[in-house]
Design brief:
Layout: H1 2-24, E1 35-36, E2 39-40, H2 54-58, H3 60-66, H4 72-90, H5 95-131
Length: 132
């Protein structure tokens, strides 16, 4: 039980840091009138070569051409899984909820679980080495 509480505390701390970093950038973004599905957005809808905007969401190729720092020859390889992930999230019917569920909750939880398991295995191996 003690280990579970420790893991829960670490997970909550990491999640809290992620939310705090994400929300700390909000005051630095200038106000505008753009909305997506009747909800005000953080970023404007007008295309900008300096940073991603909602133009990147509407037209992925615009973002690829202007913001992606990968050499164009590699994009044909990276676009395959990228478009597959976006398509899978979009096919759920609620892209926003699927994005939050998978990319914010499930995948980080799986990574944390694998990290903890690998640490437990390392401790077990060390105990076996000491006993032999």
């Amino acid at each position: 039980m003690k280990t579970f509480l420790w893991i829960l505390l670490v997970y909550a701390g990491l999640f809290g840091i992620m939310v705090a970093v994400n929300e700390s950038t909000r005051p630095n973004i200038p106000r505008h009138g753009h909305a997506y599905q009747h909800h005000p957005t953080i970023h404007p809808g007008k295309a900008s070569k300096l940073n991603c905007t909602w133009e990147c969401y509407e037209k992925t190729q615009w973002c690829t051409d202007n913001h992606v720092g990968i050499d164009q020859q590699w994009l044909r390889f990276t676009n395959i899984p990228y478009r597959a992930i976006i398509g899978a999230l979009d096919s759920t019917g609620s892209y926003t909820m699927a994005n939050i569920l998978f990319l914010v909750i499930i995948i980080p939880t799986a990574i944390l679980w694998m990290l903890i398991r690998s640490m437990e295995m390392e401790l077990s191996i060390r105990k076996l080495d000491r006993n032999s």
